[in-house]
Amino acid sequence: MKIALDAMGGDHAPEPIVAGAVKAVAADPELRVVLVGDQARIEPLVPADAPGRDRIEFFHCSQAIGMEESPVVGLRKKPDNSISRSWQLLAQQKVTGIVSAGNTGAMVAGGLFLRRFLKNVGRPGIAAVMPTIKGPSVMIDVGANVSPKAEHLFQYGVMGAIFAKHILKCERPTIGLMNVGSEEAKGTDLAKETHALFHASPFAERFVGNIEGRDIQRGVADVVVCDGFVGNVMLKTCEGVFEFVMKVLHKELLPALDVERDKAAQVLQALIGRYDYSAFGGAPLLGIDGICIICHGSSGEVAIKNALAIAAQYVRAGLNDLIVKELDAVHAPGAPGA
Amino acid sequence: MKIALDAMGGDHAPEPIVAGAVKAVAADPELRVVLVGDQARIEPLVPADAPGRDRIEFFHCSQAIGMEESPVVGLRKKPDNSISRSWQLLAQQKVTGIVSAGNTGAMVAGGLFLRRFLKNVGRPGIAAVMPTIKGPSVMIDVGANVSPKAEHLFQYGVMGAIFAKHILKCERPTIGLMNVGSEEAKGTDLAKETHALFHASPFAERFVGNIEGRDIQRGVADVVVCDGFVGNVMLKTCEGVFEFVMKVLHKELLPALDVERDKAAQVLQALIGRYDYSAFGGAPLLGIDGICIICHGSSGEVAIKNALAIAAQYVRAGLNDLIVKELDAVHAPGAPGA
Predict the structure, then answer these.
(1) Looking at the complex, does the CB of residue B321 fall below 8 Å from at least one CB of chain A?
(2) Total-model pTM
(3) What is the pLDDT of residues B148-195, one digit of tens each?
(4) Complex ipTM more than 0.85, yes or no
(5) Which structural domains are found in chain A, ordered by start?
(6) Concatenated DSSP letters for A78-89?
(7) Is the dihedral angle over the CA atoms B324, B325, B327, B328 positive or is it negative?
(8) Which of A153, A180, A230, A294 to mutate to test the interface with B (most CBs of B within 10 A)?
């Protein structure tokens, strides 16, 4: 299987991106990676004797969209940018998936522009894996679609459940709808319509209803459905609170200890590494005909290696076929919610 | 000054609620409290010799809306409930403010029903004080108005800035708009319209533009403006992440220490007390003609005492007059944004 990797995308690209690719092909003998970017700059970063070196190719392009650049302007003014080129490789079926730690807006817009959506999917959504007290859960959408319709949110729930089952190995994933309270009548019109769609669908049994912000980390649902505005704000709020608590602990807990200060500092450091939301690996854009993994801008080589591994796992599990099949069943004539 | 306190509202009402009132009148010689609720049950909870006992009155009512009860059904089917009675005392100007740790939805709906809004205020919004690395900031709205218009969000910014200046003692409060990215063109239509309103207003200089979820705890803005859906979800997400991190620390940090485990546990306990979002005192419903403080359902006597103190501070600062004056200036003929 072949995955295109945007070598120019990321806060510290291209060095850690290319290093991640080198690590990924060494770890997975079936994986082939196409590094998309400025070949003169990226080719020398791949050691000639790296294990799996023959499974790394290059696709040269001359431009790159900046991390803070307007996605729309970037895509229009830089036709030879690494994100558009990656999407084109996917559209031409030269690769099965694409991975980028570059400009998230440009990645999503590039995908929307091509409109290669899976059957029955109105709009793709970004799924983010969240740590909870009961193990990982998945939140979808975290930023692809800030003004969705109820049917999009319903589809996010279905896609998220398939992701949770096959990637997070959750036997029978439950689905919760993010809202301002647990009562059925709570929230916006969008929330009420989405609630009704789930209730009338074959997923009704697995639908735990409305959940609240504090329920995510409690692991109340395996799949948390929300619009891309709310999901994006929540994901970054989690990052912010985690960062804040760690800062306070460094300022107040560590100085309070004498003999075991170093030991405590090590535990905090390990926690930051494990639970830091910004380092939790790539987030798939679900609903695309192909695999698209969006990584955090600050991704280092390990995050990139993990993102490529997730892409491979996604292909092996045949996730997209499962999504099409499941949504087909929901939309079949006579099916509730059809 | 006289404040009505819903003695029946709260997870553990009426005991800690009444105890909070007793503490509050003892601490503030100008404060009078009207305890609204089942008099036979609450009067015996006030010790006859409590300092300031003569500044505690009772307003008997026979019903109470449950914490999980539908606000609309509760308000309609229980006309003699403590929340409606408190609002009526405010409407009749028998008290200057009301405080409740009861059903938040019923408190907000009770206020909307009376429609005693300040001049130029389209809809009231709940302001929540948030801890940040630079000191407290205020987030508004956190749940009163889940589908606001841009002008409501603009008014929240103005009211939040007055609250930050006079209650949080922030000299020149900055205002940020919660969004999915910092670019002007980001987000929903609502976010874009609100951004434009601030830009064209006399607040343009103090408007720091769009901010993201992770910026709250970094203290990027003193006032964080958002719709009630997003604000409510964010507030509860903060609670959830804090709770989660504390659980993980108790499970992983404390067992890793030998000699200083107790010391570390004490520091964590103090942090929970100080930063626990659920114990951060009451949140004012801004934009009401009068004072309305909504407390967390789990409020104990200290939280209730603090909420009564905030209500008194609010009255002394003449906050509502300042809000009317500021919004009048914005809406004056010829004023930008008028």
Answers:
(1) no
(2) 0.93
(3) 999 999 999 999 999 999 999 999 999 999 999 888 888 999 999 999
(4) yes
(5) 2-121+287-316 (3.40.718.10), 125-277 (3.40.718.10)
(6) -TTBHHHHHHHH
(7) positive
(8) A180
